[in-house]
């Protein structure tokens, strides 16, 4: 069979009012037709490096996707990513956090990316989805926080294809998020058996299979 595409890796600094680090893994040469870019956020105890260690960035690039994992400012261990002084985006309004993600998408040249949002990163992803959902090719919420801050009518207005993912052992946040996110008109649900809240860490092969299947349906 054909040899897998070469991958180009880079670490970029995204400037602006809330600077952050971005890990970029790109197929080289890019496939034709172009496959969706993927932007990966992270949970409270994790960072952009989580997706590198898990093999997600390399896997996505091998499948022809430009994959970018960012450090949410002030929420990871990336030294120097955020000035010691100044307000963190979590202290901003939901509109401010949506603006932060929009800035990242623009600075990194992402074209209608698929947004992957586990746990704490829902504080950023949900306001972005509701305000700028048309700028996304897809949305992959993984038991995100903050879903109850928005009503069914708001979710029903979003036309972004969505893969709702959670582990069957996450009986708290995973199922709570599902009750809100099920109002998204274009959603499907995948429950990973034997996985807890960080289901992608507990069952990475099952997670990758579900993610690639969803991405394949978008093409």
From TrEMBL:
PANTHER family per record: PROTEIN ABHD14A, PROTEIN ABHD14B-LIKE
Keyword Hydrolase tagged: yes
Protein known as: Protein ABHD14A
Membrane topology summary: Single-pass type II membrane protein
Protein family (similarity comment): Belongs to the AB hydrolase superfamily. ABHD14 family.
Function according to Swiss-Prot or TrEMBL: Possible role in granule neuron development.
Lineage, uppermost ranks: Eukaryota, Metazoa, Chordata, Craniata, Vertebrata
GO cellular component: cytoplasm; membrane
Domain of life: Eukaryota
Keywords: Cytoplasm, Glycoprotein, Hydrolase, Membrane, Signal-anchor, Transmembrane, Transmembrane helix
